[in-house]
UniProtKB/TrEMBL annotation, chain A:
InterPro entries found in the cross-reference section: PhaG_MnhG_YufB
Name the record gives this protein: Multisubunit potassium/proton antiporter, PhaG subunit
Transmembrane segments: 12-31, 43-61, 67-89
Keywords: Membrane, Transmembrane, Transmembrane helix
GO MF annotation list: sodium:proton antiporter activity
PANTHER family given in the database record: ANTIPORTER SUBUNIT MNHG2-RELATED
Organism: Pseudomonas segetis
TrEMBL record, chain B:
InterPro entries noted in UniProt: Cation_antiport_E (IPR002758)
Positions of transmembrane segments: 7-23, 29-50, 62-86
UniProt name for this protein: Multisubunit potassium/proton antiporter, PhaE subunit
Keywords: Cell membrane, Membrane, Transmembrane, Transmembrane helix
GO cellular component: plasma membrane
Recorded superkingdom: Bacteria
Species, as recorded: Pseudomonas segetis
Lipid bilayer topology: Multi-pass membrane protein
Family in the record: Belongs to the CPA3 antiporters (TC 2.A.63) subunit E family.
Matching NCBIfam families: PRK08965.1-2
Length: 110, 167
């Protein structure tokens, strides 16, 4: 395989892993439940996206025809991630979880 | 059988067919036929569960809107990564209430999902009368600015696509 293609694949893999790592770090570092929700809904989408692009390039360059079914992962992720985040947020409001003291505004009573 | 019962959701059928072919990862004719059969049967067997889909008045605008959303998602990732790695005590999280003009179920779902996927915001709840959306933000400097941005950037195009208003 061409060295440039290998470089490109590695770049997207590394970038994807980096974003997945930052998302996981956010889950660990952020102070309250609602803020932690932001990590997995956002950073991981780009993390998975980077790895999907790497996979597309890698299998496309191996000459077995272009494969597009990786793109479906992104599609399913975009459909499911916001819904699960929404349900988690609703459940958290019902449980009246502790909220960071810097937060302005209030959650609704469920 | 009336034609609308024979093919209840043409757009959904088309999506199912394309998804099937992508899943099989094989563009041969047999797979397209199989996809077409599934795309016809699944909506037919599940049509009692589906809500009436809203009419799309401006399909090209919708496509362009999706491209912009993808751009915004990438920016959102960078933004949130920066906030996570930065100092935690400087973050100013907030619950913000945003009044909604959209009324259709599907359009509201799309807007709520888009808000969850874009910069620093997660949609948390919709009020019972469907007029208010509660949004949690990771770091907000100016709430009024955030509300106008969401309304002009995401809600206005959706309104235009689904209800044919010119706002």
């Amino acid at each position: 395989m061409n060295i440039w293609i290998e470089g490109l694949v590695s770049f997207f893999l590394l970038a994807g892993s980096l974003f997945a790592f930052v998302g996981a770090l956010g889950l660990y570092r952020l102070p309250d439940f609602f803020m932690r929700l932001h990590g997995p809904t956002k950073s991981t989408t780009l993390g998975v996206g980077g790895m999907v692009i790497a996979s597309l390039i890698y299998f496309g360059a191996r000459g077995e025809g272009i494969s597009f079914h990786e793109l479906l992962i992104t599609l399913f992720l975009f459909i499911t991630a916001p819904v699960s985040a929404h349900m988690l947020a609703k459940a958290a409001m019902q449980q009246k979880l502790r909220i960071n003291e810097n937060t302005s505004g209030k959650p609704w009573d469920q | 059988m009336k034609p609308r019962h024979f093919l209840p959701h043409p757009l959904l059928s088309l999506c199912l067919m394309v998804v099937w072919v992508l899943l099989a990862n094989d563009m041969s004719l047999g797979n397209w036929v199989m996809g077409a059969i599934l795309g016809w049967l699944i909506p037919l067997l599940t049509q009692v569960f589906w809500i009436t889909p809203p009419r799309i008045y401006k399909p090209f605008k919708l496509c362009w809107f999706f491209l912009r959303i993808i751009g915004d998602i990438i920016l959102a990732n960078l933004e949130v990564a920066k906030l996570i790695l930065g100092p935690q005590s400087k973050l100013r999280p907030a619950f913000v209430e945003i009044p909604m003009l959209l009324e259709d179920d599907l359009a509201l779902t799309m807007l709520a999902s888009i808000i969850s996927l874009t910069p620093g915001t997660v949609s948390a709840d919709l009020s019972d009368d469907r007029k208010m959306l509660l949004v949690h933000t990771l770091d907000v400097k100016d709430e009024a600015h955030l509300i106008t941005e969401i309304k002009t950037r995401y809600e206005a195009p959706l309104l235009e696509v689904f209800t044919c208003s010119t706002t």
